[in-house]
Amino acid sequence: MPDTTKRSGLWTRRQALLTGAGMAGAAMMPMGFPVLAFAEDQPPIGTWPAGSEGDTVYIGVAVPRTGTYAVQGEDELKGAELAAEHINEGHALIKELAPKLSKGVLGKQVKLVVADSGAKPNEAVQAEQRFITENKVVLMTGSTSSAVAVALNKLAQREKVLYVSMISGSNDTTGKDCVRYGFRQCFFGQTAAAAIAPVLIKEFGKDLKVAYMTPDYTYGHTVTKSMQDMTASAGWTTVTNQVSPLGAPDFSSYLLNIANSGADILINVNWGHDAVLSIQQAKQFGVLDKMKLAVPYQVPFLARETGGLMQGVYAATEYWWTMEDKYPLAKMFNEAFNKKYGYMPEWGAENSYISIVHWARMVQETGSFYPPDIIKTWEKGETIPSLVGDVHYRPEDHQCVRPVMIVKGKMEADMKNKEDFYDIVEIVPGEGLMQKPDAFGCNLGDYT
């Protein structure tokens, strides 16, 4: 289980004076004597320097372990656990992703403190606030719901503690709700729509009537809007948009409206167990006999949990394990993950792993845990490796520019093994997919 040991790490006036005296003494030491790594001329900010005083630094992880997004949350947690383990031991994959790292970050071991967010923003914020106070975490992560990601963005900016979202599909996360202290590695609604729309139009044709199923929060609304925007030029029109609350137990009323809408295609934006239930019930109601199904933002484990209903269905995703044939680092990750957990990783695990490793790389490159300096290192926008090739983060909105994969569900007869659910149809480069950095209203805010 992840370490949840509490530590106070309080930065007292006496400690500050002693450290200042130590620095003054170190300045008079012979060349080669180790000097403290942090930005000693800066006042304390957030959990710095208290959070990095000892031989261990803590990362606060708030993911859904119960509720409609629990399956995906557990997968994210496994990716975070593996990232911490690999960073601490100096694993060969870490050497490829962050060559300057060597058994820890700036010589310190990384430990996770973990909470169940239940995909609820208030619970996630309360958990991370507790981690800030009690554990002096130097990084926050988590989210599966974009409502949680947006809430933790705001907490990060207020408390001046870095945050990397895990799964967050809303355009708003690095759009109107972006913050200086928040970064996102994963793909999102606009990039998913820009990648999958041309494939769907080519496959199904122009001038189609479309029914949408949309979860009623920032993720759902922005993904649906992006899909509508990206298909409008082909004459696709929305005949119904069925908006449902998170965790709806029954989709029958929404599906009845869709069945009677005359739609040619159903675009299901629901996520987690909501996506599973709504697709299964769509089959039961005969909706999938009347119209095609597409999933613009693929849900980890969806093919497995829907019992074959993703066969022949197109989806956009961040990562699918068979891309290891193209990306050697993906193969290394798949092998390590499968060895530890007994299954091939889904994109929640991949995203949480690489997000934490990218943070560790930035800290090591900075030579300090001082947050404003880490942010400025990140904002250089340098090309760095990931599990899907070289990527970079945009300084204007802290969004990672990365490819999006279009997959199509395999027919059961074509599956080579029990986890061979998808064919990769296309890998679309990220650079041409993304909106301009200011298109969704990003204003990052202050460093201090």
Automatic annotation (TrEMBL):
The keyword Zinc-finger does not apply. InterPro entries: BCAA_transport, Leu-bd, Peripla_BP_I, TAT_signal. Residues 56-410 form the Leucine-binding protein domain. CDD domains: PBP1_SBP-like (cd19987). It holds the Pfam family Peripla_BP_6. It comes from the Bacteria. Keywords: Amino-acid transport, Signal, Transport. Belongs to the leucine-binding protein family. PANTHER family: LEUCINE-SPECIFIC-BINDING PROTEIN (PTHR30483), PERIPLASMIC BINDING PROTEIN OF ABC TRANSPORTER FOR NATURAL AMINO ACIDS (PTHR30483:SF6). This is Substrate-binding protein. It comes from Aquamicrobium soli.
